[in-house]
Amino acid sequence: MTESGPPPWLAWAREIQALAQTGLTYSESEYATRRYQRLTEIAAEMVQSCAGLAAGLLVEDFVAQPGYATPKVDVRGAVLQGDKILLVQERSDGHWCMPGGWADVGDLPSEVVVREVWEESGFHVAPRKVLGVYDANRSGTPLEFYHAYKVIFLCELEGGSARPSSETAAVGFFSFDNVPPLSANRTHERHLAEVQAHLRDPLRPAAFD
Q1: Looking at the structure, do residues 55 and 91 belong to the same domain, yes or no?
Q2: Hey, is 24 helix, strand or coil?
Q3: What is the pTM of this model?
């Protein structure tokens, strides 16, 4: 499978926004601040032109991002029951993915995956191994405007029962050869293939981009 990055306009807009955000953080003159503010507006206008989103709201969101620009972190749990993997159906797009979400400031990555699996599926798990660390924007659809990394944990099922949530419409275990339509920006075929590879070889090292 060939990996694909974001469309060029998104990569350019993302880089301009990141440069502007970092520049505003360290700017020491009014002249430089105005220039970085204009770069923020240009990034928003590019997204508005290509994606049809409101530039004004984007500028507000971009300005609200603090400090040096770095990737966000998306954490996912690979939970097995026999030879089937736990997937949840996202209310936002109707497609399926491994449970997970954005990491919160102050939490350990392992705490994030435990909480996210519980909140989205109703199952209690214990993380046992990091299966992979991926550039989330270079396989499937970018999570959103901001650049993100994806960390996938292999988790042991400890209890609970299937329960949808405010973010998930359904919960189920599926065989790898019969998965429902995937929410590719959250869980890509590439990620499921890596889970299978680790199940075949428990000593397999973590994958990474």
Answers
A1: no
A2: helix
A3: 0.75
Q: 182 with 94, same domain?
A: yes
Same domain, 85 and 184: yes
Helix (H, G, I), strand (E, B) or coil at 46: helix
What contacts 112, CB < 8 A, 6 or more positions away?
Answer: 75, 100, 101, 103, 104
User: Are 42 and 117 part of one and the same domain?
Assistant: no
Is residue 1 in some structural domain? no
Higher-confidence position of 18 and 130: 130
Closest residue by Cα to residue 59 from 85, 4, 28, 20: 20
Tell me whether residue 120 is in a domain. yes
- Arithmetic mean of pLDDT, 72-78: 95
Amino acid letter, 126: A
pLDDT at 157: 98
Domain that holds residue 43: 8-64
